[in-house]
């Protein structure tokens, strides 16, 4: 595996760091919630940056293989959409039933149906 030098890695919510400046990633186990998925250790900073993306997604964006370099724009976009869908699904799963009911009644969003649909789409892509 090879780190992509001087490649900007998105950490979510408008945070970007150069891939070669990231020295470590650590999943947040406790107090993990909306926008709190991974601690990212960046060269020259004492405290880790809190990323809203998973450590696997961040690592994938940091690494390069010869195949990655030849991917066209649409393949990269599809991959990014898949990771975004996984992140959204991970957040939706944590919404408690009472809040789901309020969101459905007040906002017209059926999170149960949305969750099922996202799982189906992700399952189709892995098959």
Primary descriptors:
127 residues, alpha+beta, three-stranded antiparallel sheet, 48% helix, 21% strand
Précis, in short:
By secondary structure, the protein is of the alpha+beta class. Helix content is 48%, strand content 21%.
Question: Secondary structure elements and their pairing?
Answer:
Blueprint: E1 2-3, E2 8-12, E3 15-18, E4 22-27, E5 38-42, E6 49-51, H1 55-62, E7 63-64, H2 66-70, H3 73-93, H4 97-107, H5 111-126
Question: Could you walk me through the main structural features you see in this protein, from its secondary elements to its overall organization?
Answer:
- The protein has 127 residues and is of the alpha+beta class.
- The protein contains 5 helices and 7 strands, in the order ββββββαβαααα.
- Helix 3 (73-93) crosses helix 5.
- It folds into 2 domains: 1-70, no CATH class; 72-127, no CATH class.
- The model is unreliable at 65-70 (pLDDT under 50).
- The protein has a 3-stranded antiparallel beta sheet, covered by helices on one side.
**Global morphology:** globular
Q: Which bin fits the share of residues in helices? A: 40-55%
Rg from alpha-carbon coordinates: 17 Å
Structural class: alpha+beta
Number of strands: 7
- Could you tell me the strand content as a percent range? 15-25%
Spell out the helices and strands N to C.
EEEEEEHEHHHH
Mean pLDDT: 81
**How many helices in DSSP terms?**
5
Uncertain parts: 65-70
Number of domains: 2
Largest beta-sheet characterization: 3 strands, antiparallel
Q: Give me the side-by-side strand order of the main sheet.
A: 4-5-6
How many angstroms does the end-to-end distance come to? 26 Å
């Amino acid at each position: 595996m090879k780190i992509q030098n001087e490649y900007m890695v998105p950490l979510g919510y408008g945070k970007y760091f150069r891939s070669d400046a990231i020295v470590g990633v650590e999943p947040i186990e406790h107090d993990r919630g909306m926008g709190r998925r991974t601690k990212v250790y960046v060269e020259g900073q004492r405290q880790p940056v809190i990323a809203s993306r998973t450590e696997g997604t961040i690592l994938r964006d940091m690494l390069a293989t010869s195949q990655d370099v030849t991917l066209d724009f649409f393949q990269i976009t599809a991959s990014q959409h898949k990771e975004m869908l996984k992140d959204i699904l991970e957040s939706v799963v944590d919404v408690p039933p009472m809040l789901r009911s309020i969101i459905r009644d007040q906002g017209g969003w059926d999170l149960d149906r949305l969750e099922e649909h996202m799982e189906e789409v992700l399952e189709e892509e892995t098959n």
